[in-house]
């Protein structure tokens, strides 16, 4: 029930109607019995600054940021966390001392299933990352945090790849980072201990597509981890191929849940939030429940 004291959270993007964040956040809020609501805000790029001023005026507690505002929001914030600076994008904003503070919980979300389920020594790990867009930046930062021996990013556009490489400067992330074009894949797959798809290839409705051919996937070492950031369909063709060659598979749903849980903890200033309820709400919404 909305009351006179209801606190406002939300997500800004354009378009934003496909966002799954309201589903999982409102499920968690209901479970916790909080007088709070999480709302989608479609904000056109030219209205971003005035929208953020409006958020200050009406006392919004915090919000998520999605495409196309993840970089554009940076100059409008008073403080940016080191991880968001490293990634170069903000997905979570909170209010502190009447100022907007930005961070990035995608890295934490990406790492969560790796750290909880497959806790291993990552120092010998060769990570091969398919795609060099926004999500790939969080994955690179995550792999650097794990201490991977090599972080190999595959892209199709040499200019964008070079820009991606150069954008990390002399940072910790840049140390073991190399970029390659797709034609290097046959050489790189047999070395991969962690193979991450950050491209949208295989996403609904083109569910039969995969960034790799079955033959390329066949060279992935057994016991390698294949991680697809896509969460619908579940599993993707990429993950089905990986299962067939004996790899461990992780889908994108857990990253989505965990980045959301990390954001909610920040806004509510709580150490724990009902992650299971958030996961369950998403699975139900996506029709993944039996
Ligand atoms: P993005 O910034 O548009 O990046 C997409 C990347 O994929 C780009 O490098 C693009 O190459 C490459 N790509 C696209 N189509 C390709 C093709 N046919 N062949 C080869 N490369 C191709 O998008 P994003 O924000 O990183 O998101 C990527 C995917 O991750 C989406 O499916 C999204 O749903 C998913 N995601 C999931 C989560 C989660 O929580 N699970 C979080 C973030 C993103 P160019 O740069 O050359 O165009």
Structural notes for this entry:
There is one protein chain. The chain has 290 residues and is an alpha/beta fold. The chain has two domains: 7-104 and 254-285, Leucine Dehydrogenase, chain A, domain 1 (Rossmann fold), CATH 3.40.50; 108-250, NAD(P)-binding Rossmann-like Domain (Rossmann fold, 3-Layer(aba) Sandwich), CATH 3.40.50. The protein contains eleven helices and twelve strands. The strands form two sheets. Strands 2-1-3-5-6-4 form a six-stranded mixed sheet. The protein has a six-stranded parallel sheet with strand order 9-8-7-10-11-12, sandwiched between helices. Helix 9 links the parallel strand 11 and strand 12. Helix 4 (106-117) packs across helix 5 and helix 10 crosses helix 11. The chain is globular. The chain starts with 6 loop residues before the first strand and ends in a 5-residue tail after the last helix. The mean pLDDT is 96. Residues 106, 109, 131-136, 155-157, 160, 198-201, 203, 229-231, 252, 255-256, 259 line the site of NADP nicotinamide-adenine-dinucleotide phosphate.
């Amino acid at each position: 029930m909305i009351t006179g004291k209801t606190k406002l959270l939300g997500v800004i993007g354009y378009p934003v109607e496909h966002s799954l964040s309201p589903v999982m956040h409102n499920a968690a809020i209901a479970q916790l019995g909080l007088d709070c609501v999480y709302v989608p805000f479609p904000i056109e790029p030219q209205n971003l600054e005035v929208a953020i001023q409006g958020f200050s005026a009406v006392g919004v507690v915090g919000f998520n940021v999605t495409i196309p505002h993840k970089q554009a929001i940076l100059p409008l914030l008073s403080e940016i966390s080191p991880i968001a600076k490293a990634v170069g994008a903000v997905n979570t904003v909170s209010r502190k001392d009447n100022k907007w503070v930005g961070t990035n919980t995608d890295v934490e979300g990406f790492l969560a299933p790796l750290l909880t389920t497959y806790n291993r020594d990552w120092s010998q790990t060769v990570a091969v990352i398919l795609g060099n867009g926004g999500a790939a930046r969080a994955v690179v930062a995550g792999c650097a945090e794990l201490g991977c021996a090599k972080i190999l990013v595959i892209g199709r556009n040499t200019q964008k790849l070079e820009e991606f490489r150069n954008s990390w400067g002399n940072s910790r992330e840049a140390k073991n980072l190399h970029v390659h074009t797709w034609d290097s894949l046959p050489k790189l797959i047999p070395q991969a201990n962690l193979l991450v798809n950050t491209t949208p290839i295989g996403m609904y409705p083109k569910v039969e597509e995969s960034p790799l051919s079955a033959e390329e996937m066949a060279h992935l070492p057994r016991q390698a981890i294949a991680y697809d950031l896509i969460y619908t369909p579940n599993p993707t063709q990429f993950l089905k191929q990986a299962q067939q060659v004996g790899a461990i598979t992780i889908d994108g749903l857990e990253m989505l849940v965990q980045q959301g849980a990390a954001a909610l903890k920040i806004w509510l200033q709580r150490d724990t939030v009902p992650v299971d309820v958030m996961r369950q709400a998403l699975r139900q919404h996506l029709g993944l429940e039996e």
